[in-house]
Amino acid sequence: MTSIESRIKRAKFRANHRGTKEMDIVLGRFAEAEAEGMSEDRLAALEELLSQPDPEIDQWIKGREVPPALASLISDLRRFHRLES
């Protein structure tokens, strides 16, 4: 298994095992569908997102101001779940 494959596998696991069922669903489905095709930079952004606490991620998804480094990924996450307004 290459380094990138290992990172993808770890990111998928972390996305599906958050601690709150809602985040397991929101992040897990996104990671399962999108992680394989991510560039290394995009995967790094996903890993950074997954290192954040669930309540913070929840607020970003709901529209609170997102850190610039994660804005594009949160936008894609919202679009994936059809939450864009």
Brief overview:
With 85 residues, this protein is mainly α. It has helices at residues 3-16, 21-34, 40-50, 54-61, 68-80.
What does this molecule look like?
The protein is mostly helical. It has one domain (3-80): DNA polymerase, domain 1, CATH 1.10.150.250. It contains 5 helices and no strands. It has helices spanning 3-16, 21-34, 40-50, 54-61, 68-80. The longest helix is centred in the first third of the chain and has 14 residues, at 3-16. It is globular, with a radius of gyration of 12 Å. It starts with a helix and ends in a 5-residue tail after the last helix.
Write the layout of secondary structure elements.
Layout: H1 3-16, H2 21-34, H3 40-50, H4 54-61, H5 68-80
Helix pairs in contact: 1-2, 1-3
